[in-house]
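User: Structure tokens for this complex, please. No commentary.
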Amino acid sequence: MIGYPTKKRKQQTANVSLQFNRRGMGLEEDINQSNAYFREMGIALIYKKPTPVQIVRVDYPMRSRAKIVEAYFKTPSTTDYNGIYRGKPIDFEAKQTSLKTLFPLKDVHEHQIEHLRRVLFHGGIGFLLLRFSYYDETYLIDAKKVIAKYDDPSTKSLTYVWVKQEGHLVPQSFQPRLHYLKIVDTLYFEEVTHDE
Amino acid sequence: MIGYPTKKRKQQTANVSLQFNRRGMGLEEDINQSNAYFREMGIALIYKKPTPVQIVRVDYPMRSRAKIVEAYFKTPSTTDYNGIYRGKPIDFEAKQTSLKTLFPLKDVHEHQIEHLRRVLFHGGIGFLLLRFSYYDETYLIDAKKVIAKYDDPSTKSLTYVWVKQEGHLVPQSFQPRLHYLKIVDTLYFEEVTHDE
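Assistant:
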């Protein structure tokens, strides 16, 4: 009578994730694809953390798996991405703006900044991946620089001009879409790369 | 008319998380408390990853925040805990058994083992925290040893005797409840600790 609920559910889910990715923009998808490539090739082990959700009510409809029927999005207490690269802890946040001239710093949660502060304190590699979608350009900006701007009470945003100067343009390709680890190599491992 | 919906919701949530913690047992709570202590004291930056949830349907009831009304628990593709300790990536899974003589290896997901394999490959510190709740004892077992057992087709479980031999009993106290980093110090940083 119920007829292949699993199959139906899967289709539904696919649609919804498409819808959600649009909110999450192209950047998140590009990073996820790049991380999957890095994992597959044994280059790095970096994951996006699951979206933190506060679960309020769960149903157990007849013999099927648990169904969450009431839950809310929580504010994340850390950055979205972390993992291991060349034996070092790596941790970053990704943001996107459609504005042409600046990225408003209020779009970064305060505890994400605090988290990056701690990443640096504990000897990890930390940065922000920032996309200016108008130019289709993604920049890696060292956490220290972002934190300094955040701590400066006279600064409300990162200007595009500043990001071009202080950040590093991430090479884009088909596979991986965003090769941000090339920037990490030059910035944090002090080695000469020839193929950039 | 609606009357403090936020407050009500908070109470509800608290009850539910209690209920969930019971499923998650004392071990998860002990680790979370210990990690909070380590973060607060600037000792380590280790978090539990949020439970991965597949979101199917979200409602936006009048002007209030988004409410997830259909979602399902997903099988995690990584371990539950990761972070940074003394400049090194740290990654582990926590399990508990009420059995007296063994821990069944089928209670560890295959991709969690695969993940730990990759953690070691990329130069991270990986292990399993295993609690035998009958004895109220928690052991740290190096990932390499757990993986070797997992790969051995004749082994279906970790026996209590083996864990006592090959693992390391984690010191328990009030604050932090589980000082597993003491074991990490001796195992992975090759330094003499006097106060164990």
